[in-house]
Amino acid sequence: MESRPKISIISPSKNTGRFVKETIESIMAQTYKNWEHIIVDGVSTDETLEVVRQYSHIRLLSEPDSGPDDALRKGLAMAKGEYVMMCCVSDGYLDKKWLKRCVEILDQNPEISLVWGIDQNMLEDGTLHTIVTNPWFENPPPNGKDYIYYWLKDAALFHERDLCVRKSVFEECFPKFDSNKPREDQEQGHLMFAYNFNTLGYLPHLIQVVAAYGRQHDNAISQDQAISGESEKRGREYYTAFKKFKSKIIKGEVKHCYRDGFGNILPYKFEVKKCFDIEKENKLRKMISYLVPPIFIWFKNKVAARYGAYKHIQELRKRRKIKSEER
Question: Could you please report the per-residue DSSP string of 244-296?
Fold first, then answer.
């Protein structure tokens, strides 16, 4: 690895020792080598630290934290790279060229601030499961300046497992720690990161590759947050902020500007008309969602009734034929 890393990969961790080797080695298997790997551990009491210390290249910080976002902020303060990525311990990369692909896009396109890909779920035993956004292989979101219209359509989120973001943009968009709020209330930062990234006018680029996996396991913080209702609460806050911004931009109360990867204003013009087109499309989708189920049920019942009647007539004809033959 070179003296100054191009990419800083930050891995929050706590008591995930049975997965840490796989995560580390999925990063080591990357064809692109100019990176640093920072593991921010929440004082694990299992074998995590013992395993991590077997890898001399790892930059390790182990101290109490309130969760992955708290760990990510600490890792970001340590990061030396021009670009940053987050790969929680238990997750990892499937595409061995993923880092190389990200660097090529960001190096060659100064207007792009973020590169992302397609994720696949993994079961606790290591079995690969569903691809998170399979339809994107045939119908992907637009890249660059047109992505904002896609986001305004349904408040889509980025896949945090495979994101590669310019560090300066990440620092600007990821929610800062607020000393007036409890630490445990400052998780789910990827939601407001997506909100800030899009409303500030930064541009993403999707690569249609299954880039990373996210493992589902009993010790996952995301499961605890879902059970406690924390995920739902943060989701509502995100969607409320999204709807307010969308309303303001449609009414012309907010002027949307596009920015390059260094925060400079780009000459592109935001087209409010496309927002109205989105609204019309969303209303049509809602109408279809209300109408299609009843129509489908009616059609299904109609077909079933006709098929039943047909079968009944066929049975009657068969009986009559048998009777006529008996005579």
Answer: HHHHHHHHTSS----B-TTSPBPS----HHHHHHHHHHHHHHHHHHHHHHHHH
pLDDT digits (tens, 9 = 90+) for 7-60: 999 999 999 999 999 999 999 999 999 999 999 999 999 999 999 999 999 999
Q: Which residues contact 309 (CB under 8 A, 6 or more apart)?
A: none
| Separation of alpha carbons 271 and 279, rounded Å | 13
Q: Please tell me whether residue 188 adopts helix, strand or coil conformation.
A: coil
C-alpha span between 320 and 64 (Å, rounded): 84
Positive or negative, the Cα torsion across 35, 12, 105, 137?
Answer: positive
pLDDT tens profile 180-204: 666 555 557 889 999 999 999 999 9
Domain ranges of the chain: 7-251, 276-327
CA–CA distance, 201 with 191 (Å, rounded to integer): 16
Tokens of 185: 């209330």
DSSP lists the bridge partners of residue 8 as: 36, 84
Domain 7-251 has CATH 3.30.2000.30: no
Q: Give the long-range contacts of residues 274-277, CB within 8 A, separation 24 or more.
A: 274/149, 275/149, 275/152, 275/246, 275/249, 275/250, 276/250
